């Protein structure tokens, strides 16, 4: 359905996106994953025809959207990272306004508004002014606006930023349902690993404007087939203990957080006795040491040397 060919965007001397190649099949949910500043939103701006690339092309049904932007915009829905609603209007009035922008009217528009309000769980709040809504409700209405014209493809740029867990789960379940029940194709950007793991058929990982990995969940995790992750927890993981792990020849990578250390080591390595000895030398008590199944977070750390949210 959609193909990105050597897509690049340069601002002065900086490449925000460099030679990005992607494809999206009909009915897929594609995850575009990366930390803030990775180039995800710039890529989405080009995919949605809102920004012209410095080089490369975006092709939809084998037609360049650079030459057919108007035709493309009629069949794509966009959920931007920033809320795009009129806050002095009600939920229903926002849907009426944007529906007319999509050239919907009469009974067709009325029917779509009823359908969308039900879908995003706002039927009871239809007459309420949007500025009285919570962040999660605004996000849900924003998604509803993008669905009014029955798009073939919906692009969602970090739609759960800054909302409560309940609204976040509602949005994730809604996206899953749209895909399963309506065969809707979705491009979903996030810097939350768990969202992408839950939703997506295939994943593209970006960092500093470059595509650094792609594939299904399991295919990406197999990048770490020669390594394993060890999670260490303790009450006071002091500098001596951390330094001894950083300098240890069997440790490939290490990240630290409050009362927790994550190690990447070769799959065949057994570290338990060594960790016990190092903890004793540092004068600390470990509360737990265990191996864990590789996650996308582990892959990202492996590829970039830093955690996703760094």
UniProtKB/TrEMBL annotation:
Keywords: ATP-binding, Nucleotide-binding, Transport. Residues 2-233 form the ABC transporter domain. PROSITE patterns: ABC_TRANSPORTER_1, ABC_TRANSPORTER_2. One of its GO terms (molecular function) is ATP binding. The keyword Hydrolase does not apply. Pfam families: ABC_tran, DrrA1-3_C. InterPro entries: AAA+_ATPase, ABC_transporter-like_ATP-bd, ABC_transporter-like_CS, DrrA1/2-like_C, P-loop_NTPase. SUPFAM superfamilies: P-loop containing nucleoside triphosphate hydrolases. The keyword Glycoprotein does not apply. This is ABC transporter ATP-binding protein.
